[in-house]
Amino acid sequence: MDFPTVNATLNATSAFFLVLGYYFIRRKRIAAHKKCMLAAFSFSTLFLISYLVYHFQVGSVPYTGSGWVRKLYFIILVSHIVLAIVILPLAIRTLYLGWKKRFEQHKDIARWTLPIWVYVSITGVIVYCMLYL
What we know:
By secondary structure, the protein is mainly α. The protein is built from four helices and no strands. Helix 1 packs antiparallel against helix 2, helix 1 runs antiparallel to helix 4 and helix 3 runs antiparallel to helix 4.
């Protein structure tokens, strides 16, 4: 199995559902929003499992680029890793508040969760492209 490609696809799919979920909530389509956000969380969870399985097997993969692109890669990678650590509890809390129908609290935290989660999902794909393509 080509884990890096699977992982990038899972990240991209998660980003797609996050943006679609945002679109739906802006139009007050709550049921569609809920389905999209649960799908995004599911794809992110599958990504995390797949990522861990891959890296337990392969270990670290070095970046071979050079020059300014190498610096850019590490800037993206470091921000991605830091925010990926932050997003896990944020996403769980945001989903929990929505599930419990505590919508004001859900909305307050979702304003932070959504852009960070989208950033992490998209930069995951960018890191894949820079590392493997």
